[in-house]
Amino acid sequence: MYTTYNLFKFLHVAAVIVWVGGVIALMVIPARLARQEGAAATAALGRQAAFYGRSVVGPAAVITLVAGIVMVVVGRLRFDALWIAYGFLGMVVSMGLGGALLSRLGHQLTELTASDDPDPARMSALEARLRTFNLINVLILLSVVWAMVFKPTL
Length: 154
Fold this sequence. Notes:
The chain is mainly α. Helices cover 88% and strands 0% of the residues.
């Protein structure tokens, strides 16, 4: 049991590192690029960010979830423990936010910047929404990491 638990704990922590780091990178790099480069660079980055989200961040989130579930079962922990329930809730919210809202906003921004005559006001509004929701997502993920480390109870 102990070896299996530790293996899945390693997978869980490694996946969290990739997931949270990826989300932070997808927040910081586009914001910086939007201030320095033009619409063509933003469109190219949008396509790469979508690929990275689907190919790296999304799978890392799923591995985090699956490894966490295995750890709870193998470690004979309780799913209703506050820190575990909070972790699952935060993960589900973050995965929904990233997989649905953020990817849709990113796709809209990529399409807009790739158009012949992108509307600067609409681009700016989409970039601001992306920054806001990315920040919310990062804060959710960091709060889950906090809960996993400190394991609060009622």
